[in-house]
Amino acid sequence: MNADLRGVDHRRPHVVILGGGFAGIATAMRLERLLGTRGDVSLVSQDNYSLFTPMLPEVASGELEARHVATPVRAQLRRTRFYLGEVCGIDLERKTVELAHRLS
């Protein structure tokens, strides 16, 4: 899959974050604040939601519904470009990341 990079100014910093867990989303949020409009941030994740795992026991026991511990990634990030897919390859020389859609 080729990522759609329309609108990305290749003369500005562009940070690509691989993984949409706690650390990936927190890093994207921080970079949005630090870079503002002076750079671009992209995040690649296999899932389009983040899961607040510390609350899973409450979901398993029926105290909470599953929707209360899952949040869409796009809802958490304002300026970060989000790519749903699996990383198949990284070429550091060409500064590219190859992605594939997950079938299941």
Tell me briefly what this model is.
Helices cover 23% and strands 31% of the residues.
Task: Provide a descriptive summary of the structure in words.
It is globular, with a radius of gyration of 16 Å. It contains 3 helices and 7 strands. The chain is an alpha/beta fold.
List keywords for this structure.
alpha/beta, 3 helices, 7 strands, 104 residues, two-stranded antiparallel ribbon, 3-stranded parallel sheet
Task: Outline the fold blueprint.
Blueprint: E1 14-18, H1 22-35, E2 40-45, E3 49-51, H2 56-61, E4 70-72, H3 73-76, E5 81-84, E6 86-91, E7 96-100
Parallel strand pairs: 1-2, 2-5
Antiparallel strand pairs: 3-4, 6-7
SS elements, strand count = 7
% residues in beta strands: 25-35%
Mean pLDDT: 88
- Calculate the terminal CA-CA distance, rounded to whole Å: 16 Å
Structural class: alpha/beta
Uncertain stretches of 5 or more adjacent residues: none
Instruction: Report the helical percentage.
Output: 10-25%
SSE pattern: EHEEHEHEEE
With helices defined by DSSP (H or I, 4 residues minimum), what is the helix count? 3
Please summarize the sheet with the most strands: 3 strands, parallel
The outline comes out as globular
Give Rg in angstroms. Answer: 16 Å
Give the neighbour order of strands across the main sheet: 1-2-5
